[in-house]
Each structure stands twice: as C-alpha cells, then as structure tokens.
C-alpha cells in the first residue's frame, strides 16, 4: 500500500518510516499553525483533483 504522509518540521518519526514508493509532503516550517494551514490547502487540492478525475468536474 502506498502512503501519502503530510508532515512538518523535517518529517519526524513518520518521515523516517516511509518506504521509497511512499509520498512524503513535508512543510518546511517550524510553526505548527503554518504547517496546518499548508496541510489544509494540500488536502483541498487533493480533493479537487480526485473530484475532477472521478466526476469530470472542472
């Protein structure tokens, strides 16, 4: 199973556990609020892409 990991501050223990074929989206910031804001944007973009692929929504 391929894993998509959203992390921050270098990835921590999760980043070290990922396999070569996993996807690691690490936000290079120290502030938790900035990391969470970026994760929220990434999640919205992923959902928009999935909608477009499955439903043909532009």
> What topology, given as strand order, has the largest sheet?
1-2
Strand content: 15-25%
Q: Characterize the overall form.
A: flat
Identify the quaternary structure here: single chain
User: Radius of gyration over alpha carbons?
Assistant: 13 Å
How far is the N terminus from the C terminus? 29 Å
Q: How many DSSP helices?
A: 2
Which residue ranges are poorly predicted, with pLDDT under 50 across at least 5 consecutive positions?
none
Helix content: 40-55%
Pattern of helices and strands: EHEH
Query: Main sheet, how many strands, which sense, barrel?
Result: 2 strands, parallel
Class of secondary structure makeup:
alpha+beta
Using DSSP, what is the number of strands?
A: 2
What's the rounded overall pLDDT mean?
94
- Count up the domains: 1
Give your account of this protein's structure.
The chain has 58 residues and is of the alpha+beta class. The longest helix has 24 residues, at 32-55. It is flat and about 35 Å long. The protein has a two-stranded parallel sheet with strand order 1-2. The protein is 52% helix and 17% strand. It has helices spanning 12-17, 32-55, and strands at residues 4-8, 23-27. The mean pLDDT is 94.
Blueprint (SSEs and pairs):
Blueprint: E1 4-8, H1 12-17, E2 23-27, H2 32-55
Key descriptive features of the protein:
flat, alpha+beta, 58 residues, 2 strands, single chain, two-stranded parallel sheet
What's the short story on this structure?
The chain is α+β, with helices and mostly antiparallel strands. The chain has one domain (4-55).
């Amino acid at each position: 199973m391929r894993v998509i990991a959203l992390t921050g501050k270098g990835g921590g223990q999760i980043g070290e556990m990922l396999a070569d074929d996993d996807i690691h989206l690490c936000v290079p910031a120290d502030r938790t609020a900035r990391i969470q804001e970026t994760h929220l944007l990434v999640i919205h973009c992923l959902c928009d892409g999935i909608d477009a692929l499955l439903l043909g929504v532009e």
